[in-house]
Amino acid sequence: MAGLLGLAACGGGNQTPSGTQATGAAGGDSKKQVEVFSWWTGPGEADGLKAMREIFEKQNTQFTFFDAAVAGGSGDKAKALLKTKLDGNQPPDTFQGHAGAELQGYIKDGKLEALNSLYDELKLKDVFPAQLIEQISVDGQIYSVPVNIHRSNVLWFNPAILKEAGLAGAPKSIDEFIAALEKVKATGKIPLSIGSEWTVAHLLENVMLGSMGTDAYNALFKPGGNWAGPEVTTALQKFAKIMEYAGDPQDDWQPAAKQVADGQAAFNIMGDWAYGYFHNPPDGGLGKASKTDFDWAPSPGTEGTYMWLSDSFTLPKGAKNRDGALAWLKVAASKEGQDAFNPKKGSIPARKDADTSLYTDYLADALKDWGSNKLAGSIQHGVSVSQPHLAAIGEAVGLFMGTKDVAGLQKALDDAAKANIQ
Ligand code: GAL
Q: For a 10 Å CB count at each end of the chain, is N or C smaller?
């Protein structure tokens, strides 16, 4: 793995070399920095962070916000650097972690402080869904502040290309999806856009959910979950077929999503952070027109299910500026913070008491579905599998992209599950 400084933070704002932050900057500024670690540097994502940062800065003039974001969608690069920092006892003051198995790993490794007193002080148990609190707790201790709920299972599409291909609407099943991809191919447009390797693992979780159904998908992550069975085989065969229609891999999720909004590609399966990117004004997003330049539907075969994930912020043990981190967590927990962050981020608030009038267009659909759908946990974004398990899945998907060997992929996924699910 690259050394601590090899993967230098590259977010916007007031950077200093990692690990050197303390009181005072060169200009005699005596404010204490709060190092906030995330991977929200790119178009769309950075807008949400900026909105929350502005509130933090207004409310906490004694602190300086230090943006330690590390570029790279889904945080693969950020999480590698974070591990080095945590292992070297040089934690950021607060970092972004996914609720569920990913966060449970940091808790079990003893890296986080419990936040029960903050929860009591701010009465947070009343405002977050009980099921969500369960995902960030061990033995009654609560270890993070969830700032949002994202949806993984969204099919983004270009309405004009669908029309050109003779398609009446978004495909509702995996088989309909494959037929639609074939029709788009005949138009000469890219049927399905993809980004870097993690976006293919993201596609895989969606095809598995859509092919297997919610109960069978959820059962995979319970002890004894059967990754070697025929339902997984069928899902992987369909995944392999779908991948035949994929365009050239783009650098990350944004350029792949952009191919849809620009009228080059018909479909992209991506989380709803893509909505922030499509919709936000051109200084951060693409400023595209919803329903005209882009449209959405649940990914094929998953209607009625919300494949969820949640970004949450933590208090690492040994944070240099613990008070500053707590001040950040208070903003992240607040109604004001969540209602500033989420409409820009393309997510809905984790809090139950948000101002629903702020969530319009795609986000109104998301709020409605979150309140009524069945739930499934995202693989790629930390809910259902631990970090080591996800790394093994990522490796299996990467190999498959070269070999196209479905049986080999299933064996590797089965081995990964056996090694990681107790
Ligand atoms: C997810 C994260 C989202 C979004 C996405 C793309 O893992 O939870 O907030 O940033 O990656 O980078």
A: C
CA 245 to CA 389: how far, in whole Å? Answer: 28
Q: Pairing relation of β-strands 148-151 and 305-309?
A: antiparallel
Decide: 202 in ligand 1 pocket, CB within 6 A: no
d(CA 124, CA 67): 26
Contacts of 77 (CB under 8 A, 6+ apart): 7, 39, 70, 71
Ligand 1: residue whose CA is nearest its atom 2: 74
Q: What is the reported pLDDT for 378? A: 98
Residue nearest to atom 9 of ligand 1 (CA): 311
CB of residue 151 inside a 6 A radius of ligand 1: no
pTM over 0.90: yes
Separation between Cα atoms, residue 276 and residue 384, nearest integer Å: 25
- Ligand 1 nearest-atom number relative to CA 96: 8
Phi, psi (deg, nearest 5) at residue 98: -85, 135
Residues 6+ apart with CB under 8 A from 132: 99, 146, 149, 310, 350
Q: Residue 144 CB: number of other CB atoms within 10 A?
A: 29
CA distance 395 to 412: 9
- In this structure, the residue with its CA closest to atom 8 of ligand 1 is 311
Using a 6 Å cutoff on CB, does residue 79 contact ligand 1? no
Cβ neighbours, 10 Å, residue 133: 17
For each successive 10 residues of the chain (422 residues), what is the average pLDDT? Answer: 32 40 43 95 93 98 97 96 96 98 97 98 98 96 98 98 98 98 98 98 99 98 96 98 98 98 98 98 94 98 98 98 98 98 98 97 98 98 98 98 98 97 82
What was the pLDDT predicted at 12? 42
Whether 96 is in the pocket of ligand 1, judged by its Cβ within 6 Å, is no
**Measured from the CB, is residue 45 less than 6 Å from ligand 1?**
yes
